[in-house]
Design the sequence.
């Protein structure tokens, strides 16, 4: 705790107190006043001494007067030295007191200069004025804005975008982050420290930043962003075992974070999702089907169209027939036996349609051993020659033509539309009739003593004579 001296009440700070320039100034003023008073008194005393000396000289003898003068001078010196001692302390002179006073004045000037240097000090300017985004402060007064100057302010209203600060009328300067981007989230009653970089005020001690929102952060977690502190709302689906079963419509995946393992969630799979289980022309989850559709032939069984040289039944279209002639005309009949379409193909004489599928037609020249593959309009897609054929069928999805040939003996060949043969030529020994063609191959009836069934696969492999059990194993 502070105490005072006994003579002049100079304040003596306690050990626990810090330097206080105001107390120092009061003590210095007291010393200066008392010292001046002592100097004035000394001067008066010396002047009085001179006057008295004249009087004494008139009254005393020279030697007596000198003795008295010496005594007076000694007393005056003792008095002055005591006064100086009282002010300056033991062993000090008036010169050291003056030197100390000069040092005190110099120190005061340094303190004042230091306090006025806002590159070293950060003054608090109080509450800003102005509207949102355009803030101003009047104090402390400054001569000019210089690089490095700093100030703390209390914002009066929330900012809504890029903001400026005008200090003591020296012009509005942008408020930026250290990375140069605008500060857009100043909050009312928030205290901010800014430092001028020569062009803008740079926000000091910047907190968290970023553009995340609550939905971007896991539920219960916290973060600091440009908009302030947020608490996450994103559901945590780790370990939730969320299951999505495919259906005929799109399904929304439940919102949340998944760790990427089966225990968090999954879309169900099915081993039966394979091409051979999907109809030809259909696609399920990008698996393109190869299964031939078995059409409904029932309505056609009593149709008069059956008397027109039937060659193929195409589901969704009807019965294709050649009219029993080699006129190069394919005819399409509905279940009532009404002709609904014709396709004419006559690149040469004696042309006969021998097979029709969903998107292809197979034509043969019964005199010159030619094969033509066309689209459903009769446009040629490929031309095969040199095949002495009897009966043929085609599977367009696998590009296979199953041909019965005759060169004195009956054979079966498997070709594609380019004429490439698959497997070896099969020797039948008797003629045959194709019964069904499918992805896996073609089934035919062999006209021999047992009238047996046989099967040739798409690679030219032969199975026969065949039973239902063998056929099931071949096709499964």
Sequence:
């Amino acid at each position: 705790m502070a105490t005072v001296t006994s003579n002049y009440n100079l304040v003596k700070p306690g050990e626990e107190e810090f330097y206080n320039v105001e107390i120092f100034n009061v003590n210095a003023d007291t010393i200066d006043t008392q010292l001046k008073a002592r100097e004035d008194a000394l001067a008066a005393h010396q002047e009085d001494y001179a006057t008295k000396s004249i009087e004494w000289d008139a009254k005393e003898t020279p030697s007596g007067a000198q003795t008295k003068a010496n005594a007076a001078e000694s007393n005056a010196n003792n008095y002055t030295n005591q006064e100086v001692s009282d002010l300056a302390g033991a062993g000090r002179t008036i010169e050291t007191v003056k030197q100390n006073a000069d040092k005190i004045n110099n120190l005061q000037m340094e303190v004042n200069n230091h306090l006025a240097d806002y590159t070293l000090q950060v003054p608090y300017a109080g509450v800003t004025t102005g509207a949102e985004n355009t803030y101003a402060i009047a104090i402390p007064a400054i001569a000019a804005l210089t690089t490095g100057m700093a100030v703390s302010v209390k914002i009066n209203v929330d900012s809504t975008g890029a903001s400026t600060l005008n200090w003591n009328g020296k012009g509005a300067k942008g408020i930026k982050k250290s990375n140069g981007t605008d500060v857009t989230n100043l909050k009312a009653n928030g205290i901010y420290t800014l430092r001028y970089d020569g062009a803008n005020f740079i926000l000091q001690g910047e907190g968290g930043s970023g553009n995340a929102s609550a939905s971007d952060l896991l539920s219960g977690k916290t973060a600091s962003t440009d908009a302030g502190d947020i608490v996450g709302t994103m559901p945590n689906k780790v370990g939730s075992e969320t299951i999505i079963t495919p259906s005929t419509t799109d399904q929304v995946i439940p919102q949340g974070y998944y760790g990427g393992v089966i225990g968090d969630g999954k879309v169900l799979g099915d081993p039966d999702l394979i091409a051979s289980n999907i109809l030809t022309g259909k696609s399920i989850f990008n698996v393109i089907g190869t299964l031939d559709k078995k059409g409904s032939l029932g309505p056609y069984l009593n149709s008069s169209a059956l008397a027109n040289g039937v060659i193929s039944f195409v589901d969704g279209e009807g019965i294709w027939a050649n009219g029993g002639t080699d006129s190069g005309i394919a005819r399409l009949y509905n279940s009532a036996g009404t002709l609904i379409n014709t396709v004419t193909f006559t690149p040469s004489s004696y042309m006969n349609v021998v097979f029709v599928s969903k998107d292809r037609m197979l034509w043969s020249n019964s005199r010159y051993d030619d094969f033509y593959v066309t689209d459903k309009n009769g446009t040629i897609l490929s031309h095969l020659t040199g095949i002495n054929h009897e009966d043929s069928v085609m599977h367009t999805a696998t590009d296979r033509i199953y041909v019965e040939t005759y060169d004195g003996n009956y054979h079966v060949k498997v070709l594609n539309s380019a004429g490439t043969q698959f497997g070896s030529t099969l020797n039948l020994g008797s003629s045959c009739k194709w019964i069904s063609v499918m992805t896996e191959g073609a089934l035919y009836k062999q006209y021999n003593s047992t009238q047996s069934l046989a099967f040739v696969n798409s690679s030219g492999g032969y199975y026969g004579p065949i039973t239902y059990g063998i056929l099931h194993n071949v096709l499964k």
User: Anything to note?
Assistant: The longest helix spans residues 21-59. The longest strand covers residues 389-395. Residues 4 and 10 are 5 Å apart (CA to CA). The chain is about 20% helix and 30% strand.
